[in-house]
Amino acid sequence: MSDAGNGRYGTGPFPHNLDESSQSESSLDESSLDEYGRGDPSRDGVLRGEASRGRRAWGESSRHVPSQGGLSRGQVVVIAGEPVSGKAGTRLIPPFTASEAAALAAAALQDTLRAVARVPVARRVLALDGAPGPWLPRGFTVLPQRGDGPDERLAAALDDAHRLLPGPVVLIGTDTPQVTPDMLGYALSLLSAYDAVFGPATDGGFWLLGLRAPDPALLLGVPTPEPATGEAQLRRLGEAGLSVALMPRLTDVDTAADAFAVAAQAPRSLFAATLARMSALR
Fold first, then answer.
1. What span, in angstroms and rounded, lies between the C-alpha atoms of 123 and 72?
2. What is the DSSP letter of 176?
3. Cα separation of 196 and 64, whole Å?
4. What pLDDT, in 10s, does the model give residues 86-99?
5. Predicted pLDDT at 114
6. Which of 63, 196, 206, 267 has its CA 20 to 30 A from that of 216?
7. Which residues, in sequence order, are bridge partners of residue 48?
8. What pLDDT is attached to residue 280?
9. pLDDT tens digit sequence for 37-51
10. 3-class DSSP state for residue 71?
């Protein structure tokens, strides 16, 4: 017998200008957010949790979240593919060419790795489909991806990292080059107070998943990628009875419009600079 109501949802304090929910609608619509948890920006710059149907609305003062100074026992895992033309960034083709899409994917990958490199953690892992290149910073453990479907690869990346170094793990992809070290550090710190941390994406998926005790069963079978992937993954965490902290909603780079929107949000990123050079040549 499963019941999503067994899970507990909430958000911790985080700057509201990183929540993009006001800029784009997600398939995690109002009804599903009411059921599985919601974080809304408040005037004081704090995201406060809210859940309906009698569930406790975890807010800033509901749990003690320690400072990010205690992150040394956790790790951040980046799951990515080698940025090869014809394989990387294919959702951007057209209007971009295959080589342009790969260049944008490479820039997003480098921005993500640079952000992770600045988080004070015990280990930084790259779960890679392909071969590492000169874009890989020092200090990363590279693990090959395992599995067939996206759910299997995500589950394996979390499980492999956890087996090598037991402890909390935060997993992200590379479609959100606007991610910052502070966001990642805060997500990891939440795992000292919550069982899981979840970062919804505006396209209905998710950009971050953190687990205090990774278990492949929490991901296997979740349909990915689909418009309701985020809702399905959040429901799975709830059915397992986990307490879940919500991160701000971010935009994944899935389309050309997404690319320009994300570049505007992170104007100093390599991704923004790469996109600007391409636009200037057109």
1. 8
2. -
3. 15
4. 999 999 999 999 99
5. 98
6. 63
7. 40
8. 86
9. 333 322 222 223 333
10. coil
